[in-house]
């Protein structure tokens, strides 16, 4: 088991039931077993592309709310990874099925997508760095865990195989580990070693759980 972040691990353990529903969702299981209908996967890809646009904005906002240069560097690298690595994957996969980048940009966001992405952005606009980074963590590290969990599955569908290779691959795992280190240092620098006794920690717990539930809703949306 890969340790991405000690603070993340505490939150994950507190909401382990919800976390397992997210990372072991039916969508993920069907994808890894090659039983997911392609139309459901394409539905997911289009919505996830739109989500990643907003997600990139959230990480860009994190740069502004950073306290030091190291935080700014990691947030900047994450934005770069989202725009030039993860979103590029979506564009390439969709193109094989006749969905152009213009089609992706002009697609209509579904309600579950809007609820999740705007929740994260609002957390950043109205709060501080920790208010923003906490609901970002489940997506980044969650996908890294999912990729690692199903990396040995070999679905015959090339799209599914590529998706698994992307999130289990060295590049994405490297980004996730850096984000995990960022999370740990940000919490310790702002709240101290007894962070779990602060009122802020209670707020972070709520935001973390909400983000997990919104991730589950996102999978459910893709299967409709």
The helix-and-strand class reads: mainly alpha
β content, as a range? under 5%
CATH topology: Heme Oxygenase, Chain A
Largest sheet, strands/sense/barrel: none
Features:
mainly alpha, 224 residues, single chain, 0% strand, Heme Oxygenase, Chain A, 11 helices
What topology does this entry show?
Blueprint: H1 6-14, H2 16-23, H3 26-32, H4 38-65, H5 69-95, H6 101-106, H7 111-126, H8 129-149, H9 158-168, H10 170-191, H11 199-223
Helix pairs in contact: 2-11, 4-5, 4-7, 4-8, 4-11, 5-10, 7-8, 7-11, 8-9, 8-10, 8-11
Written description of the protein model:
The protein contains eleven helices and no strands. It has helices spanning 6-14, 16-23, 26-32, 38-65, 69-95, 101-106, 111-126, 129-149, 158-168, 170-191, 199-223. The protein has one domain: Heme oxygenase-like (Heme Oxygenase, Chain A). The mean pLDDT is 97. The chain is mainly α.
Write a short abstract of this structure.
This protein has helices spanning 6-14, 16-23, 26-32, 38-65, 69-95, 101-106, 111-126, 129-149, 158-168, 170-191, 199-223. With 224 residues, the chain is mainly α. Helix 4 (38-65) runs antiparallel to helix 11 and helix 8 crosses helix 9.
């Amino acid at each position: 088991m890969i340790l991405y972040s000690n603070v993340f691990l505490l939150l994950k353990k507190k909401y382990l039931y919800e976390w397992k529903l997210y990372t072991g969702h039916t969508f993920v299981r069907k994808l890894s077993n090659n039983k997911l209908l392609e139309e459901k996967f394409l539905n997911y890809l289009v919505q996830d592309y739109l989500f990643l646009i907003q997600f990139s904005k959230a990480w860009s906002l994190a740069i502004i709310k950073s306290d030091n240069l190291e935080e700014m560097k990691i947030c900047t690298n994450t934005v770069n990874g989202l725009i030039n690595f993860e979103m590029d994957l979506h564009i390439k996969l969709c193109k094989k099925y006749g969905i152009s980048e213009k089609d992706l940009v002009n697609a209509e966001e579904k309600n579950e997508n809007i609820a999740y992405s705007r929740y994260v952005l609002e957390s950043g606009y109205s709060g501080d760095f920790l208010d923003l980074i906490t609901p970002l963590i489940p997506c980044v590290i969650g996908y890294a865990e999912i990729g690692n969990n199903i990396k040995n599955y070999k679905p015959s569908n090339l799209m599914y195989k590529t998706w698994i290779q992307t999130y289990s691959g060295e590049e994405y795992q490297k980004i996730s580990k850096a984000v995990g280190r960022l999370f740990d240092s940000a919490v310790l620098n702002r709240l101290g070693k007894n962070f779990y006794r602060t009122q802020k920690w209670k707020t972070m717990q709520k935001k973390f759980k909400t983000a997990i539930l919104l991730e589950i809703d996102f999978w459910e949306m893709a299967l409709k």
